[in-house]
Amino acid sequence: MALQGLIWDVDGTLVDNEEHHREAFNAAFTAAGLDWHWDRATYQELLGVTGGRERIAHFVHARDPERAARSGFDDFVRELHADKTRRYGALLDAGVELRPGVARLIDAALHAGLPQAIATTTSRVNVERLLARTLGEQVLGRFAAVATGELVTAKKPAPDLYLVALEGLGLAGGACLAIEDTALGLRAARAAGVPVVITVSRYSGDDDFSGALAVVDSLGEVDAPARALSGSLRDKPCVDLKLLSDWHDEISNFN
User: What is the predicted pLDDT for the residue at 252?
Assistant: First the structure.
């Protein structure tokens, strides 16, 4: 089965932005008068919980169960996360860069007529803001489907976001390829039948990527070549559509 669609994760994949998220969480905690601070080790652990509100709730249940048991806890988490989202948006406005090769591949797929979708646990407002700052105000409309965290109850590693993206694309999972940066994303895509290429990000280097078609340190550019951590770049300096198709064909032929 030929490659017929690409599905992109956002955080860590399009931009290596988890430090922006961590900074925004900590700023929101401080503004709320909370003595919480997520250092990198803590945040690394919390990334095992997908979704910002879910991450806060998980942390509070573990650290301060009495607060979690109080009336109005859900409202507290919602308001705290809303403030975090505002602060994260301000950080994006101050400047954020796409990872190497992202703009090149998105543009190449557009020119080739290859449908693309987004499957991310983050909120639509965050996706819109990030893409507007990096690829332009109109780019979101060029994606055939945009599956964000508000649309599902079960987030990654559940397959629900990918199922929404596939429905929007009108394609079967095996006809597509996902580009992800974490093991949770890999598991979500594979559960929906979508093969995966991993581009490792700051917080995902120690993840288990068993089952990925290939693992690279970035998608790469000619002047900033990608490095294969698993699989072969076939003497190419960077990941391009032909290489994605070749990787996809390998698993299609195997199946």
Answer: 56
**Average pLDDT of the chain?**
93
Respond yes or no: is residue 11 known to be catalytic.
yes
Same domain, 170 and 231: yes
Print the domain residue range for 231: 5-16+98-254
Q: Domains in the chain: how many in total? A: 2
Return the pLDDT at 254.
Answer: 40
- The residue from 9, 16, 160, 207 that is catalytic is 9
Q: Which of 11, 16, 160, 207 is an active site residue?
A: 11
Q: Does one domain contain both 69 and 117? A: no
- List the CATH number of the domain containing 121: 3.40.50.1000
Q: What is the pLDDT of residue 255?
A: 44
Whether residues 148 and 135 share a domain: the answer is: yes
pLDDT of residue 126: 85
- Low-confidence residues in the chain, pLDDT < 70: 252-255
Three-class HEC string of the chain: CCCCEEEECCECCCECCHHHHHHHHHHHHHHCCCCCCCCHHHHHHHCCCCCHHHHHHHHHHHHCHHHHHCCCHHHHHHHHHHHHHHHHHHHHHHCCCCCCCHHHHHHHHHHHCCCEEEECCCCHHHHHHHHHHHHCCCHHHHCCEEECHHHCCCCCCCCHHHHHHHHHHCCCHHHEEEEECCHHHHHHHHHCCCCEEEECCCCCCCCCCCCCCEEECCCCECCECCCEEECCCCCCCCCCHHHHHHHHHHHHHHC
